[in-house]
Amino acid sequence: MNTTQRALPDTAFQLDKLDQLIRQIAERSEKFDRELDAQPQALPCAKHGPKMRILDREASRQAAKPAYTCAACVQDQRVKRSLGRVEEAGIPTDVRHATLDNFHTDRPGVKKEHGFQPPTAFLEAARQFAEGRMRNLFLAGTPGIGKGHLAAALSRQEILKGRSVRWVECARLFAACHRAYSADGMEAVIARYTAPALLVLDELCLRDLPSDGEEILFAILDHRHKNARRTLLLGNKPAQETRAWIGDRISDRLRSGGVTFCYGEWQSARGTDWDGSGF
Fold first, then answer.
1. pLDDT tens digits for 156-183?
2. For domain 90-264, which CATH number applies: 3.40.50.300, 1.10.3720.10, 2.40.420.20, 3.30.470.20?
């Protein structure tokens, strides 16, 4: 008898054992399903009321015992985690309510000079950024037109997708870097703003750049460019003045990664019904 002939009975035996094991697993599964059928299909939730904790069959199988899930509790936990990440990201409290859907485009006093764009163009650019059609978005204009609203809405979307976000004003960024010089902690500070999937740089062009400001911004944006990370920039100057403020090297990095620039002027929404912050 050759080796192949001896192996055939062994193979048949192993297949028979496997078939028996599969049948046993199926029988145990059917028995467990019958046990679940005999359990209450819903139980009260101490927080959300009667019949809110539903028998979760998948969780029950994983736990090997009846397990109940309250969808409202799960949603509460999801919101709580999201709010924690929003706070950790540094999103300003006055725009944490923001979504793309509650950004109002019917604003009074929209200026139509050459190079100025209306609220609808800002919203469309934000939607395209949300869809990943550009890596960088620069929203600029007079105070209160909704730049921060759109940036917060986009930041919240990223957080809900499980991505990291960091929001910082330029003045605060420069101050953190200057403190780090004396403590030899510059590398850690730069890493804090190069690592997040989305960085929101706020209040560009608001004040004159410090002597090392362009170098700091270039170090961060160059690193982000090379690692294909996304950046939202918020400022208050038209394109020509913005380019002069940030410099040619930074402008080149933003363009290389793909950037859309929007500048607009219309009546501020702060303190009006359009604000939506609840203040």
1. 999 989 899 999 999 999 999 988 887 6
2. 3.40.50.300
Q: Give tens-digit pLDDT for 25-51.
A: 888 889 989 999 999 999 999 999 998
Asked if residue 116 lies in contact with residue 263, where contact means CB atoms within 8 angstroms, the answer is: yes
The H-assigned helical ranges of the chain are 3-37, 57-63, 71-89, 119-130, 147-160, 170-183, 186-194, 213-226, 239-246, 248-257
Model confidence, pTM: 0.73
The structural domains of the chain, with segments of one domain joined by +, span 23-82, 90-264
State the amino acid at position 261 in one-letter form.
F
270 — alpha (psi -120 to 50), left (phi > 0) or beta? beta
Encoded tokens for 59: 């969780």
Q: How far apart are CA 9 and CA 12, in angstroms?
A: 5
- Cα separation values, 270 from 87, 149, 267, Å: 21, 11, 9
H or E stretch covering 261: strand 259-264
If 0-12 CB within 10 Å is exposed, 13-18 middle and 19+ buried, where does residue 246 land? buried
Cα separation, 232 vs 150, in Å, equals: 10
